């Protein structure tokens, strides 16, 4: 198409846009190239040839400017010639929109009509939400539904037109309709007020002429002037530099440089940039500091930006990106790694284009910079490499710590580095610990664990009990398995049912057509910008190569793969040794899986599955024949699963278990096939199926119903792995019987036969095995606390007697582990709590209709949690139990059995901190609290001792009479420090009062020491009485004593308490002797002389007036500061060391050190000189 001779730019662009919308997946370069070809020569065409727009938004803005210029010139030309100017009238949005095209067939009117507005007001909410509000208040009428046109994109849905083909957010009709409502004054609460909008309704002719008389303002300057700071945020090879991320692109980039036919390119010109002595600005000129600046990124002031001229990529660290108000949907995929100096490779999270300016100046030059997102431990926020510096034309001088680049106004912009910040980042960077990556021994094992959810269980499904084979095929070896415990009549009924459905069993892959694609197929759904990766062929040994050939031949015969040519995605195969010494062929879909989004389809809860199968009389275990391979691949994705074989390349036509979301797809199929049976008569975990019933008659009905569903959806079963009519079996690591849930005897035997660990690896094995059995061991974390402490040591393991005793205790429990039961819903559940010094535990039981333990849990306390008060630990144990046992507690009345007032604490109106959150969280369950009472069951006996006593601190000296003397002495010392001269002591101890008054004789040597200590203190008082009073008159002091004993230190701010660990009479008394040259002695003597009535000289009076004695300590009076304690020379040295280099020291300067010493409340005469 071409622009007509008399066709205006606006009319041509409307026609061009309608045509361009019909081209799918058209990128920006294709649109610009087609537009430059179609335009007739003119200013807009010259602009496209001279300066290619960086984005479609910039192209639209430029286009609007040129349209306004063209219309303005046409208006002025028509006014000069006296001719009216005809403009296309702006059509107002009416209530009806859409409809059928009269020319036959349906077209999406939204994609064919002309846009009424070039710019639209930014909104602060999605247009779908704004539309709902407009429909609710009758600002917009709902249009008649328009049928979806042929060939439309079925994945996109428009709420306004109620059809498919485009999204609500991209609907042009809705955009214009909402714009007309906004301009009319409606929907103002949805208008984005973050910054002044660049869109405004076209002004009148008078306004246009007025604007024409003004000088034109540069667009970049005007944008920077309106730019507001949104926030403040306080560090290579790879990326897009060097030709690209692929090896072929880099080679092509190098060949272009060495090509003999390379023509001379146009020279780049830029103004001269020089550095002079005036550019030296760093406080320390003798430096080799890094270039660290501040930059503006999407209106965020980002500090700690490292300028690295040796980096081929601009890096935005993930921690910085998370602080920006940017949606993760803006991240585009980037599947390559970046390479460090020593060859280390770092994964990237994608890339993002952000508008960036160097420096914090609002008028600085702003450009769109491409950043790679990297998650790393570093002291920097952003790293700017060569691509950004070259884009700005920036020149860096590390000698001057200055960066210069040409600005838009023709001047040279200067950005100075922050030397202080650079050194701080450098020092912190040296302390950053490297990220430790645990490399597995086998790459295929990691792929199996991450991609297949079944591999985390060694024994997923295994029937127990005596079984016998039952032939259901035409040959004798074509048989399945039946339980031997069935009676003859029961076995006959089950055999008849299996023979009736024997066509559902597959004996080879050729018998299995698979699931129909209309039911389900596995779709890869690659990221939109994912780049295909073709791996290089890996060399295999002769044995592995033969195994690959055999496996490929088998897959070809089964119809699972086909040969493929000219594929863009290509993967290698990995051979893994099976337990039977055979080889399993896996495909290394690492690159393909990275390009696929995660399917978050929920897998069933393990506890729910185990509880759902336990307690039933008869079970049948089913297994699908090559389960994953029964699901077909989405046909357009066949070629993407291509892999390299020895002589050709092949691709999968069925789903391979190595694909990323294979487990989620299979679980989705199982939920669809057995949607009416799951939870009622069977349980399913991926491809493990268990049918459970309470009687054989019920089991026959359930099994027939399940087999009918298998037939309906075209599934096939593996008869060799199916077992019917057994009474017990292993599922997901648990042994399930009619009694309940029992510990796996194989796991118990492995621990019982295990010798005492001698290395850290063996300790980790032991803890891992015990964790898998934690449901059956009460207070596990508390019991194995000595063993857990060994895991924190990096040196050689020292297995001591405490570890051995804990190990033996756990072994004793596992010799006869408890049988857990699933709860009987409708009956009350009882929760018991236990708190230790370093762990908390809980036990969930049900006592009616019979006693049955349900679950044991335990958790090691974190280091701050060990310092909680015991009552808070009890509440913490309750919170942990409710979080872990939430499925059991919902729908049942839960009774917390404890003798501590948890209910009163949680319902206090003055709760604060974490207790408020816990109280709100626990209110969901409607808990009821009752006293503990008697405890049933031997495994609950450990929960009787709910709160272990505190370790005693050698309290054997505390006797009643000694405690009375300690209280008397403490009171006398307090009264002495307060300067009391007349004192009356009242005590309810008749013995102490008798001793002090000389009535009773002292016969105990220890009490005699207390008596002499008290007599010494009596000398400080002018008058003192010690009287005996009855205890009934001493209740206030008695209550205070009990309150002090029951509360932790610091819990009551008004309560002063002192804990004495040794008798006062046995404590050494330390007397301080003043130094001979202590400057304080002279002043103390002058104060004592003044108090004695001596006459002092005027100079001495002035000196004394600055000081005061408080008790036996000398203080200096302050004018604007509180009193300062006077200290000696040795004490001042200690204070300066602590303030400068102690645990709270900051290594500050002398002025800062003096200020900190004064603020700490200390003074000595040489303070100014010493600091």
UniProtKB/TrEMBL annotation:
The Reverse transcriptase/retrotransposon-derived protein RNase H-like domain, residue ranges = 799-896
Entry protein name = Uncharacterized protein LOC106763301
The alphabetized list of GO BP terms reads: DNA recombination
UniProt-annotated stretches for the region Disordered: 73-109, 189-228
Q: Which keywords appear in this protein's UniProt record, sorted alphabetically?
A: DNA recombination, Endonuclease, Hydrolase, Multifunctional enzyme, Nuclease, Nucleotidyltransferase, Transferase
Instruction: Kindly indicate whether the keyword Hydrolase belongs to this entry.
Output: yes
- Transmembrane segment boundaries: none
Q: Which Gene3D superfamilies does the record cross-reference, listed alphabetically? A: 1.10.340.70, 3.30.70.270, Acid Proteases, HIV Type 1 Reverse Transcriptase, subunit A, domain 1, Ribonuclease H-like superfamily/Ribonuclease H
Q: Which CDD domains does the record cross-reference, listed alphabetically? A: retropepsin_like (cd00303), RNase_HI_like (cd09279), RT_LTR (cd01647)
Gene expressing this chain:
LOC106763301
Q: Which domain of life is it from?
A: Eukaryota
Q: Which residues form the RNase H type-1 domain?
A: 961-1042
Q: Which GO terms describe its molecular function?
A: nucleic acid binding; nucleotidyltransferase activity; RNA-DNA hybrid ribonuclease activity
Q: Where is the composition biased (Basic and acidic residues)?
A: 73-86, 100-109, 198-228
Q: Where is the Reverse transcriptase domain?
A: 576-735
